[in-house]
Amino acid sequence: MHWRALRYFDVVAHSHSLREAAGRLHIAPTAISRQIDLLEHQLGAPLLERGPGGIRLTAAGELLAVQARRTLRDLERVQEHIADLKGLRTGRVSLRVAEGVVAGLLAPTLAELSERHPRLCFDIQIASAGEIVEALRRGDADIGLTFFMPRHDDIQPFASGSLEHHAVMSSSHPLAGAGELRLAQLAEYPLALPAEHYGARQALDEAARHRGVTLTPTFHAASLETQKALAMAGAALLILPPMAVARECRDGQLASVPLAPGELPRTRLDLCLHRHRQRSFATEACLGLLASALQGMGERD
Question: Is the CB of residue 65 less than 8 Å from the CB of residue 93?
Answer without folding.
Answer: no
